[in-house]
Design goal:
- The complex is a heterodimer of chains A (127) and B (292).
- With 127 residues, chain A is an alpha+beta fold.
- Chain A has a five-stranded mixed beta sheet, with no helix packed on it. A five-stranded antiparallel beta sheet of chain A has the order 4-3-6-7-10.
- Chain A is built from two helices and ten strands.
- In chain A, strand 1 and strand 2 form a beta hairpin.
- Chain A has two domains: 80 residues, ATP Synthase, domain 1; 38 residues, no CATH class.
- With 292 residues, chain B is α/β, with parallel strands linked by helices.
- Chain B folds into two domains: 54 residues, Orthogonal Bundle (Helix Hairpins), CATH 1.10.287.80; 215 residues, Pyruvate Kinase, Chain: A, domain 1 (3-Layer(aba) Sandwich), CATH 3.40.1380.10.
- Chain B is built from seven helices and six strands; from the N terminus they run ααβαβαβαββαβα.
- In chain B, helix 3 links the parallel strand 1 and strand 2.
- The two termini of chain B are 32 Å apart.
- Classes of the chains: A alpha+beta (127), B alpha/beta (292).
- At the A-B interface, strand 5 and strand 8 of A face helix 1, helix 5, strand 6 and helix 7 of B.
- Strand 5 of chain A pairs parallel with strand 6 of chain B, so a sheet runs across the interface.
Chain lengths: 127, 292
């Protein structure tokens, strides 16, 4: 029996990706989460990080926020900020990094700081 | 009786108007296809989001403590109306239809002695509404310089709505837009987005899963509901964009046809008066010759 399930990434203006996969790793708000077939039905939301989709090849997407629903072996990721790492521009990353660092220096709430720090970490990792 | 020259000028001017409307129709048809496509592409997102919210709402046991965006403030005194229209005219009854619907609602709200605030998106709607309800308009958006509507614009409007809600400026929020049914039919609609309407959703999804939530339901809802507002606004904007082009296409098609009819009528008039003047001249010549 195949151990594949469907993953869909949908942004407000289009369906970015829909394919079969073996494993997906998502940066859930409370920590990294690996999802395999027959995972229990689940709803959660995401912090900034990398979504890794493992099929024949590996696909990686940078995201800043999103909502995830898993049911009936269908993983649904709703996000407005997904970017394929293959065509994610270096200069764009640096620009975002700079903006973020000024943002972190301002007075912000704990939750904001938590999200922003993950964003910073992820951006540094891929730059 | 207009002279021959006048008629000739009018025929020429009607013909050039016809050319313009024809061109506008073509442009609208091309834009319509694109707008329709993006409206269709945008549908899954808003649908799935509604589904998730529905599933979440089902598993909330304690509606008293549910987020305010979902269940409302429990009061019914202050209304926020968001009127979404186009930035351009010449699209038939598109803008007027939305405004008409909105105004009927304004009258009802004010008639019941409730407080009214208005946000307009799109300059044409603002122009129509400010005449009667100018003092209620608290903010206007216009995305005239944007070629294509993206989620960022909707998010801007959505964030404004939420920040007003957090300041307790309103209890209920209604958005007005045109729903794109097909090229000829667009239906002006009023949709309540705060508190979220879950009634009609409940029938559509009968399956019941027991979900694992991480973190708690409330926290997810608090993250999701503001996004849902923006998504609803975005959906409305996309529907509006498609409707606008569809409406313009039909309007311009009619205008082109009317111009054609007018040209035909004027040409008959022109030929007739030309014939009349020739006949008159002939009679003059003949009677002149006879009198000799």
């Amino acid at each position: 029996m195949s151990d594949k399930f469907t993953v869909e990434i949908i942004s407000p203006d289009q369906t970015i990706l829909k394919q079969e996969t073996n494993e997906v790793i998502i940066p859930s708000f409370e920590g990294q989460m690996g999802i395999l077939k027959n995972h229990i039905s689940l709803i959660t939301f995401l912090r900034p990080g990398i979504i890794t989709i493992k099929a024949e090849g590996e696909k990686r997407f940078y995201i800043e926020e999103g909502t995830v629903e898993f049911s009936n072996n269908n993983l649904l990721i709703l996000t407005a900020t997904a970017r394929d790492l293959v065509n994610f521009d270096k200069s764009k990353i640096n620009e975002m990094l700079q903006k973020l660092e000024t943002h972190l220096n301002n007075e912000i709430s704990d939750k904001d700081r938590y999200v922003a720090s993950y964003k910073l970490e992820t951006l540094k990792e891929i730059s | 009786m207009p002279s021959l020259d006048d008629l000739k000028k009018r025929i020429k001017s009607v013909k050039s108007t016809q050319k313009i409307t024809k061109a506008m129709k073509m442009v609208a048809a091309a834009k319509l296809r694109k707008a329709q496509e993006s409206a269709e592409k945008g549908r899954p997102y808003s649908q799935k989001m509604q589904n998730i919210i529905l599933n979440l709402t089902k598993s909330i046991n304690d509606p008293q403590n549910a987020p305010k965006l979902l269940v409302g403030t429990g009061e019914d005194k202050k209304y926020l109306c968001v009127v979404l229209t186009a930035d351009r005219g010449l699209c038939g009854g598109f803008n007027s239809n939305i405004c008409k619907l909105a105004k009927t609602n304004f009258k009802k709200i004010l008639g019941e002695g409730k407080e009214l605030n208005i946000i307009t998106v799109g300059s044409k709607g603002h122009d129509q509404i400010k005449r009667e309800y100018g003092k209620y308009v608290i903010k206007k958006f216009s995305f005239k310089d944007k070629k294509n509507i993206s989620f960022n614009e909707a998010d801007e409007v959505g964030k404004e709505i939420i920040s007003l809600f957090n300041q307790n400026k309103f209890d209920k929020c209604i958005i007005f837009y045109n729903n794109f049914k097909n090229v000829i039919t667009q239906i002006p609609q009023a949709q309540q987005i705060i508190p979220t309407e879950t009634k009609n959703l409940k029938e559509s999804n009968e399956e019941n899963f027991s979900y694992e939530f991480e973190p708690e339901e409330d926290e997810i809802l608090e993250d999701l509901l503001p996004k849902n507002i923006s998504t609803q606004v975005f959906k409305a904007l996309l529907e509006n964009a498609a409707s606008e082009q569809g409406s313009r296409m039909t309007a311009m098609d009619n205008a082109t046809r009317n111009a054609g009819d007018l040209v035909d009528k004027l040409t008959i008039d022109y030929n007739r008066s030309r014939q009349a003047s020739i006949t008159k001249e002939l009679i003059e010549i003949i009677s002149g010759a006879e009198s000799l």
